[in-house]
Amino acid sequence: MIHFVIGTRAQLFKMAPIMLECEKRDLSWRWIYTAQHRDTIQQSLDTFGLPSPDHTVFDWDTEANTIKKMWYWFIRLIFSLFRGRKILDGYTGKENIVLTHGDTLTTWWGALLGRLYGCRVMHVEAGLRSFNIFKPFPEEINRLITFRLSNYYACPGEWAVNNLAKYKGEKINTYQNTQLDTLRFGLENSDKSDLTLPSEKYVVVSIHRYENLFNKDRFSEIINRLEEVSKSFVVLFVQHPATQAQIEKLGLKNRLLGIENIKLLPRLEYLDFIKAIKHSEFVITDGGGNQEELYHMGKPTLIFRNETERQEGLGETAVVSKLDPEIIRDFIKNYKEYEQKGVLDEVSPSKIIVDQLVGIMD
Question: Is pTM, for the whole model, over 0.90?
Answer without folding.
Answer: no
